[in-house]
Amino acid sequence: METLGRKRNSPGTVFQQWRSHGGITPCGPVDLGTRCRYRVRKARRIKIWRTYNMDAQVGESSACATALMCGVKANYETVGLDSSARFENCLSSLNAHVPSLISWAQEQGKSTGLVTTTRVTHATPAALYAHASSRYWEDDGKVPPTARTSCKDIARQLLEDEPGRDINVILGGGRRHFVPKVTLDPEEPDKEGRRLDGRNLIEEWSRNHRLRNLAAEYVSNKEEFDNVDPRKVDHLLGLFSYSHMDFDVDRNTNDTGDPSLTEMTIKALRILMKNPEGFFLFVEGGRIDHAHHYNNAYRALDETLALEEAVKAVMDEVDLTETLLVVTADHSHVLTLGGLATHRGNPILGSDSKVSDVDGKPYTTLLYSNGPGHTEPRSVLREAGKDSIQTAGVPRAWATHGGEDVPVFAIGPLAMTLFSGSVDQSYIPHAISYVACLAHHASRCSRESAMNDTITPISCPSAEPNSAAISSDVMNDQARNTPTKSGCNPLSTWVNQSAIIPLLIFGLLLDILVKS
């Protein structure tokens, strides 16, 4: 581990779906049985990015994730495709495939992994490995019969195609998409698989890895997961639930239950860090998004705290002088924090200290602009328990996403250079690939220099790379002609001689603004 740290610098990214600028704040005054201590707030640079889709004003998860992972703006509800692909049109997708950060990392011989609390075939993680004209094609039963010959479902792509089949660690939920209808779920025996082709992709994954003589294990509960020795396993598939994993506050912590997001993240990290060529890890606290859709601020905040624990554990595990850590979201949500002369310490999940000057009724300090929390006449929140629903302005069964720009927090190599200002989402993977010498930036780093313990100073007549320079590589994005800085930047010079390893953590961070 120590040698790997010296010889292979690791930029890692934490992509977290927190939702909005308004959503960054609430953890400061909230206390859900633990204190919020977001160390991500110590990030040295903050960037703002735009989350629209090519055909939509307010971004949707799979298209936003495609921009984040592949560096290309995409159309609403498509995944891993450029904007020439049309929703639910298989033929339009065949020549629209775009590679992702995980593909680029594998090309450089790095170990790769993904960790999520959603289904592993869900919209956001799917952008790492799948190409589908509908995010909903998670199994063959969802793919139109006329399209099944030409377009694979997302679960098959994960376990059959590159880069999915070469991902070392896959942890999350969604067993139902990998087993046939005749197979009953081990945890929920009243439910069966959803595959129509009769295939058990979990068994196929295990068999294929044995045939390839790979040290691989499949796990489905916490006891099996805890028994995995990262020193002896190079490939790990863990599907812990029929659909999405439980919210952390509802999680079964017994042996038959599920591991926490932190436990999954650290085990994945320790498996991947064995590779001297480096690694790329993606982690998503995806259930924060779902809680916001329900207008359930309690669970959204609690999931955020669970994600923060994972971020903290990663920051303790890696050397941040050699690891780029990026914390961000794929899109926003419609949560707001309001109040009139509200005193410090007022319960963040409760009502404001003042009542409305129109109808004389109290209102919650946390509000959603739309969603299931709308009632007529407006009801009063009596208890701020885990099942409480915050007030919403416009009635909807499911709250929408927000369309405002999303902040990006970064710490590590080149964070101060590349992570400031305002850009489109599609800029981010290009910046990461620059730092990590991936894809079209692969030749920038000398492998021989990276393997040397001693860094030899070199001249740098070219301008220091910055956001404007990197943005010229961003597809479907406006070129930015901001003048680059002149002179020689020591960090940039050092990175030019280093092979940087990407670690990717994606999630849904609702609150970062907390006491240091």
From TrEMBL:
<feature type="binding site">
    <location>
        <position position="293"/>
    </location>
    <ligand>
        <name>Zn(2+)</name>
    </ligand>
</feature>
<feature type="binding site">
    <location>
        <position position="330"/>
    </location>
    <ligand>
        <name>Zn(2+)</name>
    </ligand>
</feature>
<dbReference type="InterPro" id="IPR017850">
    <property type="entry name" value="Alkaline_phosphatase_core_sf"/>
</dbReference>
<protein>
    <recommendedName>
        <fullName>alkaline phosphatase</fullName>
        <ecNumber>3.1.3.1</ecNumber>
    </recommendedName>
</protein>
<dbReference type="Pfam" id="PF00245">
    <property type="entry name" value="Alk_phosphatase"/>
</dbReference>
<comment type="similarity">
    <text>Belongs to the alkaline phosphatase family.</text>
</comment>
<dbReference type="GO" id="GO:0046872">
    <property type="term" value="F:metal ion binding"/>
</dbReference>
<feature type="binding site">
    <location>
        <position position="122"/>
    </location>
    <ligand>
        <name>Mg(2+)</name>
    </ligand>
</feature>
<feature type="binding site">
    <location>
        <position position="289"/>
    </location>
    <ligand>
        <name>Zn(2+)</name>
    </ligand>
</feature>
<feature type="binding site">
    <location>
        <position position="124"/>
    </location>
    <ligand>
        <name>Mg(2+)</name>
    </ligand>
</feature>
<feature type="binding site">
    <location>
        <position position="284"/>
    </location>
    <ligand>
        <name>Mg(2+)</name>
    </ligand>
</feature>
<keyword id="KW-0862">Zinc</keyword>
<feature type="binding site">
    <location>
        <position position="401"/>
    </location>
    <ligand>
        <name>Zn(2+)</name>
    </ligand>
</feature>
<feature type="active site" description="Phosphoserine intermediate">
    <location>
        <position position="61"/>
    </location>
</feature>
<dbReference type="InterPro" id="IPR001952">
    <property type="entry name" value="Alkaline_phosphatase"/>
</dbReference>
<feature type="binding site">
    <location>
        <position position="331"/>
    </location>
    <ligand>
        <name>Zn(2+)</name>
    </ligand>
</feature>
<dbReference type="GO" id="GO:0004035">
    <property type="term" value="F:alkaline phosphatase activity"/>
</dbReference>
<keyword id="KW-0479">Metal-binding</keyword>
<keyword id="KW-0460">Magnesium</keyword>
